């Protein structure tokens, strides 16, 4: 797993959230909170992402909610989920 690759996808996801077609405010806040939490976990000194399985479940939930109306966001969240899965989460 490449830490920089994950950070790049998080940044791309955050940028897409900011520029995407109208998205429900609650959904935006939920997704931004998840992005911030993952970013914090990645940058933590111990960075033991293997114990953070719940992040994958939250990402999957986000995908289900925004899939129909925001395909680009769905793609980015899916890519991030795949990267997390590669490190054993």
Structure overview:
The chain is 74% helix and 0% strand. It is mainly α. It has one domain. The longest helix is centred in the middle third of the chain and has 19 residues, at 25-43.
List the keywords:
single chain; 89 residues; mainly alpha; 4 helices; 74% helix; 0% strand; globular
How would the global form be characterised? globular
Percent in strands: under 5%
Work out the count of structural domains.
1
Please summarize the sheet with the most strands: none
End-to-end CA span = 11 Å
Low-confidence stretches: none
What's the Cα radius of gyration? 12 Å
Percent range of helical residues:
over 70%
Whole-number mean pLDDT: 76
Structural class: mainly alpha
In total, the number of strands is 0
What's the helix-strand series?
A: HHHH
Number of helices: 4
């Amino acid at each position: 797993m490449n830490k920089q690759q994950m950070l790049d996808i998080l940044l791309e996801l955050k940028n897409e959230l900011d520029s995407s077609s109208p998205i429900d405010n609650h959904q935006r806040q939920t997704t931004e909170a998840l992005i911030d939490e993952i970013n914090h976990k990645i940058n933590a000194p111990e960075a033991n992402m293997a114990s953070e399985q719940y992040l994958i479940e939250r990402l999957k939930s986000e995908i289900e909610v925004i899939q129909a109306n925001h395909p680009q966001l769905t793609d980015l969240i899916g890519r991030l989920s795949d990267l997390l899965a590669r490190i054993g989460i």
